[in-house]
Amino acid sequence: MNLLSLRSRSERGSEIREIAPQRLVRMKPHPLIIDIREEREYLLGHIEGAVHISRNLLEGKVLQIAPELTIPIVIYCAAGTTCTSAAEALLRLGYHNIFSLQGGLQNWLEAGGLVAYATDYDHMFRGAAIYLDKILRGSKAADLPVQQPTKFELVINLKTAKALRLDVPDRLLALADEVIE
């Protein structure tokens, strides 16, 4: 009995492919787009037409909205870092046509999206380093408190706003962590 398969996903007929934002816009038939970020991040801004299923609920809910295993599905997160595990989960469920949005919502914005508001992952990784330091110094991981993201990043694309003839208030621009001009 062979318990370990050394064949690549592409040899098995399914693989996770990245898709650039420009290609996603032109994709026909239009795929199901799933935002796997936390609900509060989704509510603050998402790709138009995207369905929200947070990463921790994906396996339990995706079959309800996509019962056909051959439907093209594009998943995205804030910066493209957590999409791999979600895409692998979809492959395990039997889906065959899975794409990960290259660079996540941040790349979508830079390619012409209007606004993004997402977790500041650099800040989270620094916090993870602090936790690792505590564990290496003898603290038990189970004794450390679970922390939610506390720092978020607001990015506004003025180039897109101008193309859409939208006026972005100066007050909002002042709050932005990054403004793409």
CATH class of the largest domain: Alpha Beta
Largest sheet: 5 strands, parallel
Mean pLDDT score, rounded?
A: 81
* Tally of individual helices: 9
Q: Let me know the number of strands.
A: 8
Count of separate structural domains: 2
Cα gyration radius (Å): 19 Å
Low-confidence stretches: 1-13
Task: Kindly report how far apart the N and C termini lie.
Answer: 59 Å
> Element order, helices and strands?
HEHEHEHEHEHEHEHHE
Give a short synopsis of this structure.
This protein is α/β, with parallel strands linked by helices. 38% of the residues lie in helices and 17% in strands.
Provide a descriptive summary of the structure in words.
The chain folds into two domains: 12-110, Oxidized Rhodanese, domain 1; 115-180, no CATH class. It is built from nine helices and eight strands. Helix 5 (83-92) links the parallel strand 4 (73-76) and strand 5. With 181 residues, it is of the alpha/beta class. 38% of the residues lie in helices and 17% in strands. The strands form two sheets. Strands 1-5-4-2-3 form a five-stranded parallel beta sheet.
